[in-house]
Amino acid sequence: MKEQMIEIKFPDGSVKEFVKGITLEEIAGSISSSLKKKAVAGKVNEQSFDLRRNIKENAEVEIITIDSNEGVEIARHSAAHILAQAVKRIYGDAKLGVGPVIENGFYYDMDLQSSVNVEDLPKIEKEMKNIINENVKIERVEISREEAKKLFQEMNDSLKLELLEAIPNEESVTLYKQGEFVDLCRGPHLPSTGYLKAFQLTHVSGAYWRGDSNNQVLQRIYGVAFASQKELENYLHFVEEAAKRNHRKLGSELELFMFSEEAPGMPFYLPKGQIIRNELEEFLRKIQNEYNYQEVRTPFMMNQELWEKSGHWGHYKDNMYFSEVDNKSFALKPMNCPGHMLMFKNKLHSYRELPIRMCEFGQVHRHEFSGALNGLLRVRTFCQDDAHLFVTPEQIEDEIKSVMAQIDYVYKTFGFEYEVELSTRPEDSMGDDKLWEQAEAALANVLQSLNYKYRLNEGDGAFYGPKIDFHIKDALNRSHQCGTIQLDFQMPEKFDLNYIDENNEKRRPVVIHRAVLGSLDRFLAILIEHFGGAFPAWVAPVQVKVIPVSNAVHEQYANRIADKLAQAGIRVERDIRDEKLGYKIREAQMQKVPYVLVIGDKEMESKAVNVRKYGEEKSEVVSLDIFAASIEEEIKGRK
């Protein structure tokens, strides 16, 4: 009897015939032995399946390898199961919650009789490695709901029974088995435990069952997993480096900012941190002046009617802070735009005045859940470098190009590379389709005319208009969304904004929302971590530290040097404490001061300074005038 054949189409467009019922693993082997070796799963008509899946009809097939993003995700999913199996072997009776894949790794929530802490992780890792070395086959089993219920009742696993009840009736119930271990899971998974090559358990925590604070607290064990040992080692090195650069740690050590339980999520800027804030503001202020921006200031608190008119009430009220004043509801502003709309409306404008470019370093307040707060990266109050450009439709593209030039200059000054993203209309938007299409087309036209490569991020625009977002890359290659350009046809309608055109008729302006840094607080956190606290001299809170070798002999000359530098506008400190020279130099290095000047006999005799630049081993003796001119040029040029 002739075997039935099916047609399989591959990603490159080629089509081959195979015997009906062939597995994904066999298809991989028919292409090459190396592909079969790396294969961990496959896609059949865009749906992911285990490698042993039989294919019984014509289909489009793609083999998933361990070194692909999808392959690593599958490995991480299987790592969670191996973790749960190891815990059950060690601790016996354990009720299993969920074990999903997360960024770079996985976790598993469990109800255990005994407590697991970080010291127990090596023991669990060892058992996981035993399971991997056993190379246990991982099998998918489809069973009836009744059979699954009976199985988990016998296992006395109330958590799995609850998850089973949540599966829709029309959906099949699948289990995954590896040796004595069985779990309720949709899959797919690795063919066997031996495919997992590189993992490490990282930490433990408590977690409410199903994320509900009314439920019991389970023990959550976290881990990371990668396709190779080298990738794992690179990741662990990255984590170690990120911990050293953590802005909360450095912010405390360098005395930049603090937090207090009296104002959760609201930063207190210490003198050195405020200096950096001021430098950032002055840098932006200088650029804005060059581009003819007009700086304004709006109230922190405005009434509910304003927020209803702007649309923020309907889209943002859950993130706003409210207060009753004179029997009326007021809110702390979460954004600066409505205040700028009122300012524009304050008088009638001619088309000859446009574009009008209003800018503000505006302090805004947005409610964040306590669990989401993260140093300066996620706070409840922050300062935005906000601007709103009121333009005619004909001016849109030129103004956006101008803003992009500003953003490019600022990011390059700090040495940041960046990527661009065009975000389109979200589901909870306001306004008609035609205006949205017009706005999206305008932004796309600018990007294309400037030859910018950009990603399309559909559905992630602001509720009032599409936007261009700028994502900077830090020293650890992490991406941070900072700058934004948002095109808004809606707010002028809401506030009935007008200007008089050349025919003496009223016309609606278009509003361009613009931020370069976004949140100054968040940008400061990024700067701290990008530079590891060792800021460029122009933005460093202390630019020079003067240290006399002997206070009795050299202090007077050291003071003259410090005074001369201070008169030139350089931020200088002198260390005349009665401490050893080596200790004072080391402390200045720990404070990451860009330049340390050591003053001894030789320097005093030759009217020179011994210059130690941060990060460099060798020092250099130069005249004070040469050093002063050099650092002034460095600061002025923002190098």
From TrEMBL:
Principal place of residence: cytoplasm
Organism superkingdom: Bacteria
EC identifiers of the protein: 6.1.1.3
Annotated Zn(2+) binding sites: 337, 388, 513
Span of domain TGS: 4-65
Catalytically driven reaction(s): tRNA(Thr) + L-threonine + ATP = L-threonyl-tRNA(Thr) + AMP + diphosphate + H(+)
UniProt-listed GO biological process terms: threonyl-tRNA aminoacylation
Cofactor: Zn(2+)
Protein name: Threonine--tRNA ligase
